[in-house]
Design goal:
2 domains; five-stranded mixed β-sheet; single chain; D-Maltodextrin-Binding Protein, domain 2
């Protein structure tokens, strides 16, 4: 019996330990941050970054595609371990969830179909141009608050997905919309018939604090152990150039914070 127990113990020690599974959620409708390709696979900057984080902490990524406005409630309910979906770090969101250190910055822009707005050089001219216009934003995104706070005369229309915003711009159902600058570029390439153009000055955290302190991974507030591990992984990926390389691949620029 002793020999049998010794053999079983040795066999178990020789077997590779099963990897931890990290349940990640994203809203795969916001290229180039995250989207689905023709094969139905989720691709994008955040997907590659999430996979790189999993590799660093020796976990297996288990991805779920979840509507953006449901990400925070689902995380709070414990359906996922973390959410990675171009989520800006803000004080308001910190009341509900925890965040990693920032891994990217994401300035935003107004955009439209065609060049109806022309050249707009400064913030004051932008506010005047948007006065009374119907502006599309993704629901539960930072842009809803940004437009409400700084462009109060605009009529806000919310959407579940960014591609719905683009479709309504092309059909003339919206005058303008707000999205991250990198997403405008990607959407313009994917939807040439919509004739998308951006206008006005770039919207940044310096002038519009609603845009947050950077993009981070979201966790349940009490999951400090996972946050510490992911923070360490992100810092390594920033230091070894992985994040810069991924951002050049997907955005054509260095989006590191």
């Amino acid at each position: 019996m002793l020999k049998s127990l010794t053999f079983i113990t040795a066999l178990m020690m020789a077997m590779p330990a099963s990897a931890e599974t990290l349940r990640l959620a994203t809203s795969a409708d916001y290229p180039p941050w995250e989207s689905t390709n023709s094969a139905g696979e989720m691709v994008g900057f955040d997907i590659d970054l999430g996979n790189a984080i999993c590799k660093k902490i020796e976990a297996d990524c288990e991805w779920t595609n979840q509507a953006y406005d449901g990400l925070l409630p689902a995380l709070e309910a414990g359906q996922y371990d973390a959410i990675i979906s171009a989520i800006s770090i803000t004080d308001e969101r910190r009341k509900r969830i925890g965040f990693s250190v920032p891994y990217a910055q994401a300035p935003a822009s107004f955009g439209a179909s065609g060049d109806a707005f022309g050249e707009i050089a400064d913030r004051q001219a932008l506010e005047a141009a948007i006065d009374g216009k119907t502006v599309g934003v993704q629901g539960s995104s930072l842009f809803e608050g940004l437009v409400a706070n700084h462009f109060p005369e605009a009529k806000i229309k919310t959407y579940e997905r960014a591609d719905q915003i683009v479709a309504d711009l092309g059909l003339g159902r919206l005058d303008a919309a707000v999205m991250e600058s990198t997403t405008w570029t990607s959407m313009a390439e994917a939807n040439p018939k919509a004739d998308l153009t951006t206008f006005g000055p770039t919207l940044t955290f310096a002038e519009y604090p609603e845009l947050g302190e950077g993009i981070g991974v979201g966790f349940q507030k009490d999951n400090t152990e996972l946050k510490a591990r992911v923070d360490a992984a992100i810092m390594e990926l920033l230091e070894d150039g992985t994040v810069a390389e991924l951002s050049q691949t997907w955005f054509g620029l260095d989006a590191t914070p």
